[in-house]
């Protein structure tokens, strides 16, 4: 009887284990249905927007190289937003700092304009077919109401609040400030032409609800009126907007955003005395919140989505503003691009595939968030660029390190190949935008897709994302694609994972060299480009339907491109 009970117990354990293995296998098998015949509207290139703190990196060696690569991501012009375009200084680049010396005053207090460095920055964009988001800020030393101390020397590990020096204060003379803005816009038209400047977005300041603005909410609103009036006097067809507040799910940011929108719709204009202010687009920011949990990085996409959703809800509550374009002026997994991984371990996601899979899954859902609130999402700025002459893969939030592309940049290359209209992807999977917004991705992995179609091609992006950066089995994805032409099609399969399109893993395999050789750098540059998983292959849909099996690693992203 004893042995019989032992055998029975053993059999129960084996059966239970087999059931768990079977259940896990079922969990890893995902069916995704794509219907190319069901359009969801145009594929707006909301991803083709980038930004960074340090304007003087723009025309440096690795800055120019990266901007060239970004400009080549797609057929559409890429928009670039950068801070400190009016800050006083000699143009020396540093973390969280930049300067152009655009405005100074002579001994008698007369205004002196020098556009040399500003032009150098904007020329770099225009030469590559890019569009500046002309950020009007920050305060020149000669105009600051509290100029000293002015220049800061922040470095990772220092108190972040130390950066908010004399450049963050209101002007001591609003008329001189307005004349500066007027002269800048007039100069831009003279240099680049009216048609070109009409295609830019002019905006005032950055995150005025926190330390970036040392004035009151009402003082920002006053300065906006003076700024908007000056822009429109210089070029009536120019586009002006704001207020670039931090995430609206934070009460203080929400209060600032609402005060601004109340003013531009119903307030008394500080310049004209009339009701309301010119506004052509609305901006705010949205950030996630990673942390270290039990020794690994845990992302929080839900926090970022709640920022976005609250901002959309707020704009939608103003009938006269609801259809204005919205630019999410910074839209990222967290807040501080210059806070490196070596001092901030929660930022360890930045070098590898967590950043790329997060980007794929989050950008695809931004369309759904906008449609749900009935607003007009124009763009979402990825606040990441490069940091010149820093240690290799130090863990800044950047797109490339020392001229070598990181995996995340390849997601944008994938998006650049997606054209035409967005099409239906069946939403019977583990997550939709509402569940990610409310819960983030903490239970099952988010294995899903985003698809587009134009007259002669279709593209399907598939990701296997989870907030927790832990090892996990590959997902077995069965893609059922309806609406293909009933003819022979060419399929290209691109992949980002630990083995493909990943210079970081290639660098680690080299032994993480601190000073890679010329030969090693060449290999890293090649590894950083977007790579195909397999050779191109011809497929034959049956009655317009194709079934494609994809084995997708955790935090991996695939793009299947069909052409005919």
UniProtKB/TrEMBL annotation:
| Keyword line | Glycosidase, Hydrolase, Signal
Coiled-coil regions in this chain? none
Q: Which GO terms describe its molecular function?
A: xylan 1,4-beta-xylosidase activity
Q: Does the keyword Transport apply?
A: no
Q: Could you tell me which residue ranges the Glycosyl hydrolases family 39 N-terminal catalytic domain spans?
A: 31-528
Q: What's the EC number here?
A: 3.2.1.37
Spell out the Pfam families in the cross-references. Glyco_hydro_39
Similarity section? Belongs to the glycosyl hydrolase 39 family.
Q: What is this protein called?
A: Xylan 1,4-beta-xylosidase
Give the organism the record lists.
Answer: Dyadobacter arcticus
List the top taxonomic levels of the source.
Bacteria, Pseudomonadati, Bacteroidota, Cytophagia, Cytophagales
């Amino acid at each position: 009887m004893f042995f019989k009970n032992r055998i029975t117990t053993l059999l129960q354990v084996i059966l239970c284990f087999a059931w768990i293995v079977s259940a896990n296998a079922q969990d890893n098998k995902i069916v995704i249905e794509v219907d190319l015949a069901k359009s969801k509207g145009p594929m707006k290139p909301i991803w083709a927007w980038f930004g960074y703190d340090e304007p003087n990196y723009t025309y440096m060696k690795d800055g120019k190289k990266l901007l060239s690569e970004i400009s080549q991501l797609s057929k559409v012009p890429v928009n670039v937003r950068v801070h400190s375009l009016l800050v006083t200084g000699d143009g020396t680049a540093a973390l969280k700092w930049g300067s152009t010396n655009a405005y100074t005053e002579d001994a008698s207090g007369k205004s002196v304009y020098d556009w040399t460095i500003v032009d150098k920055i904007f020329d770099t964009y225009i030469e590559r077919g890019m569009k500046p988001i002309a950020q009007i800020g920050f305060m020149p030393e000669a105009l600051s109401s509290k100029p000293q101390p002015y220049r800061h020397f922040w470095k990772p590990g220092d108190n972040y609040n130390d950066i908010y020096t004399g450049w963050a204060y209101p002007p001591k003379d609003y008329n001189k400030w307005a004349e500066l803005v007027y002269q800048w816009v007039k100069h831009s038209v003279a240099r680049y032409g009216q048609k070109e400047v009409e295609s830019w977005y002019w905006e005032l300041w950055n995150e005025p609800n926190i330390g970036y603005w040392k004035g009151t909410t009402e003082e920002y609103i006053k300065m906006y009126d003076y700024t908007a009036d000056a822009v429109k006097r210089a070029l009536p067809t120019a586009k002006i907007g704001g207020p670039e507040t931090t995430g609206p799910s934070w009460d203080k940011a929400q209060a600032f955003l609402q005060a601004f929108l109340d003013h531009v719709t119903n307030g008394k204009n500080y310049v004209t005395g009339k009701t309301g202010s010119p506004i052509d687009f609305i901006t705010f920011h949205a950030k996630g919140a990673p942390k270290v949990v039990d020794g690994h990085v845990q992302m929080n996409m839900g926090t970022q989505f709640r920022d976005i959703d609250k901002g959309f809800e707020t704009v939608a509550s103003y009938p006269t503003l609801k259809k204005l374009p919205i630019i999410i002026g910074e839209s990222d997994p967290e807040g501080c691009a210059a806070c490196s991984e070596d001092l901030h371990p929660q930022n360890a996601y930045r070098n590898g595939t967590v950043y790329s899979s997060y980007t794929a899954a989050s950008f695809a859902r931004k369309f759904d968030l906008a449609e749900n609130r009935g607003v007009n999402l124009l763009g979402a700025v990825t606040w990441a660029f490069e940091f010149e002459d820093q240690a290799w893969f130090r863990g800044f939030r950047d797109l490339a390190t020392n001229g070598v592309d990181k995996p995340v940049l390849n997601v944008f290359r994938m998006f650049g190949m997606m054209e035409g209209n967005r099409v239906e992807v069946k939403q019977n999977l583990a997550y939709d935008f509402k569940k990610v917004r409310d819960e983030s991705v903490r239970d099952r992995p988010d294995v899903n897709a985003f698809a587009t179609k134009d007259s002669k091609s279709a593209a399907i992006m598939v990701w296997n994302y989870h907030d927790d950066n832990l090892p996990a089995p590959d997902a077995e994805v069965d893609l059922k694609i309806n609406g293909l032409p009933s003819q022979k099609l060419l399929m290209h399969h691109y992949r980002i994972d630990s083995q493909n399109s990943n210079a970081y893993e290639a660098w680690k395999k080299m032994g993480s060299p601190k000073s890679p050789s010329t030969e090693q750098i060449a290999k890293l540059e090649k590894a950083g480009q977007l790579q195909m998983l397999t050779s191109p292959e011809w497929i034959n849909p049956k009655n317009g339907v194709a079934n494609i099996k994809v084995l997708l690693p955790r935090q991996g992203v695939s793009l299947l491109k069909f052409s005919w």
